[in-house]
Amino acid sequence: MTHRRPIAWGILGTGMIARKLAAAIAESPSATLAAVGSRNLESARRFAREFGGERAFGSYDEVLRCDAVEAVYIALPNQLHAEWAMRAAALRRHVLCEKPLAVNRIEAERVIAAARSARVFLMEAFMYRCHPQTERLVQVIRDGDIGEVRLIQATFTFKLGPRDDIRLQNAAAGGGIMDVGCYPLSMARLIAGAARGNPFQNPTDITGTAHIGERSRVDELATASAKFPGGCLAALACGIRVASEHTLRIWGSAGHIVVPQPWIPPQKDARILVQREGQSTPTELLVDAPASLYAIEIERVADAIRTGDLEARSPCMSWADTLGNMAGLDAWRAAVGLTFDCERRTGS
Ligand SMILES: NC(=O)c1ccc[n+]([C@@H]2O[C@H](COP(=O)([O-])OP(=O)(O)OC[C@H]3O[C@@H](n4cnc5c(N)ncnc54)[C@H](OP(=O)(O)O)[C@@H]3O)[C@@H](O)[C@H]2O)c1
Fold it and tell me: How far apart are CA 197 and CA 333, in angstroms?
């Protein structure tokens, strides 16, 4: 992948994931870090020094208004995604926004409408969708290697440390469903779609249960069952208070697939194990990526911007895919009785 001119990025926020993307930008031949913005100028300056950023600002707005910035990466708490994505689009900046794109589907529709009308690129940053492991998995399902897909089991949990975290705040639209549940849900939709020759498939029904923290007022552990057209079911789990396995399992009429690292695949030897009925051992498919996980995402965005595609192509997140996932998150939250303060205020 070579590009005529690197994309000049501006980053909003200097937190954990902003650091990962900045490292990926430094690694990528198709990107430069033109500016970083923080609520705290000193934090932006430190960040720029560490990652070779050309400018540091004490506000997010200055990044958007900086003429040198072509695309912005929004690495802010969930309740701020829609606002800053729409502000960026209004100033004709391309947008890579952290997941989930917005607090709910209605907000996500507004963000997409803003990108469409400004004619800027917009993608929800589901990095695992950009990794070739995901592409290969979709191909295996489409080829019918395990027959008809009947059951998808996907989990993403981790254990937060004692620190005060945006994930433990209702006001920040936190909780496990929004932070990590969006991955298993998006994967189940991707696989159920691939099984029927579509880029994705939305479930017809989602039920769920959760432990809602008394202090956090968000889900700290949650499960969901999803039903897809054609009879495929998904069992999903997510959480921010316990670390469990991340393995993805897909069971079909003629075999099953195990993906040991579905969300954060390694650059070399990402493994997909395909066990066909009657085989004594699984076939191991090994997938290498041309760069590290977040650098691939940066490359995919650069490719789309350069070719004038406003939407990412499947299996990366298209706008319709994002809206389907947001609707699924809304349904999962409704099933466990989780509303965010910002939704009560705005009535959306
Ligand atoms: N794709 C992935 O692999 C991945 C992984 C982790 C997280 N994420 C997503 O990335 C986003 C940020 O997560 P993170 O883990 O990077 O969080 P974080 O470490 O807490 O960073 C969030 C940043 O947002 C800014 N911010 C603005 N208003 C804030 C407020 N009221 N409270 C706290 N911070 C505020 C802060 O930057 P300044 O102080 O510099 O303004 C802060 O450093 C979330 O939407 C999350 O879902 C994605």
Answer: 29
Residues 265 and 307 in one domain: no
Query: Would you say the CB of residue 108 lies under 6 angstroms from ligand 1?
Result: no
Closest CA to 282 of 254, 256, 246, 247: 256
- Count how many domains the chain has: 2
pLDDT of the residue at 161: 83
Residue 348: per-residue pLDDT: 64
Task: Kindly state whether residues 204 and 79 are assigned to the same domain.
Answer: no
pLDDT in tens, 58-106: 999 999 999 999 999 999 999 999 999 999 999 999 999 999 999 999 9
Residue 257 shares a structural domain with residue 329: yes
Under-70 pLDDT residues of the chain: 1-4, 346-348
Residue 124 in contact with ligand 1 by CB distance below 6 A: no
The verdict on 256 and 301 lying in the same domain is no
Which atom of ligand 1 sits closest to the CA of residue 264? 3
Output the residue whose Cα is nearest ligand 1's atom 47: 179
Q: What is the pLDDT of residue 3?
A: 46
- Please indicate, yes or no, whether residues 218 and 336 belong to a single structural domain of this protein: yes
pTM: 0.97
Sheet holding 94-97, edge to edge: 56-57, 31-37, 7-12, 71-74, 94-97, 122-124
Residue 188 lies in domain: 128-291+325-346
